[in-house]
């Protein structure tokens, strides 16, 4: 569906959305684009885990998730982050619907590597027809959680979830909205990034932590039919575009 735009909003970015974000969203909506927002909430999950004396550990940007942390993840994403985002988009006068994995088996998944990450998964199947229908009338706000065929919930990194969903929806673009202007090298924005240069930046430890799943997500989407992928902190600016 070439009229679809998938925007991933990181947990930090979701707390400081500028007016330009809502203006661009409205512009795309009025142009007839279908818009799906996949939201993160990593910093909020870490904060609540700490309050509850749970261990916070990430490996290359992926949270190690034990059953108690999975409960916190669900509660924070579906109880705090998502309603707040829905509220701010509704306040901007745009139609919005909050969505999660359990809505008509929207996101099915399987474990990534149970021994390494615990209750963490990757998305394997999407209820596309139903999702397309929802996006005809409303902007969708979707949490990065999936369910196995047996109904077990899985925590999914939001960048990787957004890429998989963008591919499945045949989106025209994927925008990863975060708290930095794009990929930085010695403090300078890299406007265009190829996979070989990204590998070099990774080898030099310039691309690390939370940027790693974003790079993987961007190239995966690009190689699988999404025409354009960006990492930015402003919907009005392309930040880093992938090539
Ligand atoms: N080369 C890089 N350029 C920019 N940011 C980087 C880079 N390498 C690591 N990062 C880190 O990645 C962070 C963004 O990832 P993350 O904190 O997971 O954000 P989000 O919550 O938006 O997913 C940046 O704030 C920065 O600390
Ligand atoms: C498995 C995994 O890492 N899940 C992520 C889901 C939220 C997320 O990705 O949020 P940000 O985009 O704000 O980082 C987590 O628990 O932090």
Automatic annotation (TrEMBL):
Its EC number is 2.7.2.8. Residues 4-233 form the Aspartate/glutamate/uridylate kinase domain. It is found in: Cytoplasm. InterPro entries: AceGlu_kinase-like_sf (IPR036393), AcgluKinase_fam (IPR004662), ArgB (IPR037528), Asp/Glu/Uridylate_kinase (IPR001048), Glu/AcGlu_kinase (IPR001057). Pathway: Amino-acid biosynthesis; L-arginine biosynthesis; N(2)-acetyl-L-ornithine from L-glutamate: step 2/4. Keywords: Amino-acid biosynthesis, Arginine biosynthesis, ATP-binding, Cytoplasm, Kinase, Nucleotide-binding, Transferase. One of its GO terms (biological process) is L-arginine biosynthetic process via ornithine. The keyword Cytoplasm applies. Gene3D superfamilies: Acetylglutamate kinase-like. It catalyses: N-acetyl-L-glutamate + ATP = N-acetyl-L-glutamyl 5-phosphate + ADP. It comes from the Bacteria. It is an enzyme of class 2 (transferase). GO terms for molecular function: acetylglutamate kinase activity; ATP binding. The record marks 8, 214 as: Transition state stabilizer. Catalyzes the ATP-dependent phosphorylation of N-acetyl-L-glutamate. This is Acetylglutamate kinase. It comes from Companilactobacillus mindensis DSM 14500. The gene is argB.
């Amino acid at each position: 569906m070439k009229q679809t735009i998938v925007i991933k909003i990181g947990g930090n970015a979701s707390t400081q959305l500028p007016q330009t974000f809502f203006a661009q969203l409205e512009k795309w909506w009025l142009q007839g684009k279908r818009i799906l927002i996949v939201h993160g909430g990593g910093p909020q999950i870490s904060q609540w885990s700490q309050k509850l004396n749970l261990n916070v550990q990430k490996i290359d940007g992926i949270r190690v998730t034990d059953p108690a942390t999975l409960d916190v993840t669900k509660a924070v994403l579906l109880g705090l982050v998502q309603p707040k985002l829905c509220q701010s988009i509704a306040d901007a006068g745009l139609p919005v619907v909050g969505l999660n994995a359990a809505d008509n088996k929207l996101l099915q998944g399987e474990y990534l590597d149970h021994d390494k990450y615990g209750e963490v998964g990757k998305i394997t199947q999407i209820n596309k027809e139903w999702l397309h229908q929802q996006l005809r009338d409303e902007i969708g706000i979707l949490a990065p959680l999936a369910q196995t065929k047996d109904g077990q919930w899985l925590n999914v990194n939001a960048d990787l979830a957004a890429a998989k969903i963008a591919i499945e929806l045949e989106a025209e673009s994927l925008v990863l909205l975060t708290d930095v202007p794009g990929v930085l090298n010695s403090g300078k924005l890299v406007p265009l990034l190829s996979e070989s240069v990204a590998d070099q930046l990774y080898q030099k430890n310039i691309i690390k932590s939370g940027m790693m799943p974003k790079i993987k997500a961007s190239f995966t989407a690009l190689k699988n039919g999404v025409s354009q992928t960006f990492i930015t902190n402003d919907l009005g600016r392309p930040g880093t575009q992938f090539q």
